[in-house]
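Project channel, design review

CF: Before we commit to the Nonomuraea terrae constructs, I'd like one complete example in the thread so the newer folks can see what an input/output pair looks like. Taking DUF1877 family protein.
RD: sounds good, go ahead.
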Amino acid sequence: MGVLYDYFSAATDEEAAAVVDWVGGPAFPPPGAEQKDNIDLKGIDPSVMLGKLEALLVGQSYDEIAERQGVFAVRFEESGEKGVVTIADEFTAVLAAATDERLIAVAEPWSQMEEFRGLADPRLLHQPLHDLRDLAARTRRRGHRLYCWMSI
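CF: and here is what came back for DUF1877 family protein:
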């Protein structure tokens, strides 16, 4: 069993926290709620894997990124099986500003990190990277924050 990760945009922490109660995450709102602008990134966790992506994008070591990385719990179910965390505004800004060429350039070294267990084809990472970058750009234009919904 793996962990599901959906990245989404919300105006406030309270709005993002409400997504914990949505059975299928930000893409599946309950009646009367609006679907969040989101993407499903399957096994891409918001801490280590996005931290390593940020390190590649800004040319720093992962240790430097991890020291200041801002992934904070917004809300988790009591069972701990579902929750929402924030994505650092600094990372959202860096990602939103990344060019297509830069994303293509970092796909290869990012695919080699141990968390992918040797199973990532850098050519298949191009689209998810572009989708995440586009979500980050839309999020910043709206003055929102980027969040990650996770479910075990």
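RD: helpful, thanks. The chain has a mean pLDDT of 91.
CF: The chain has one domain: 4-27+37-151.
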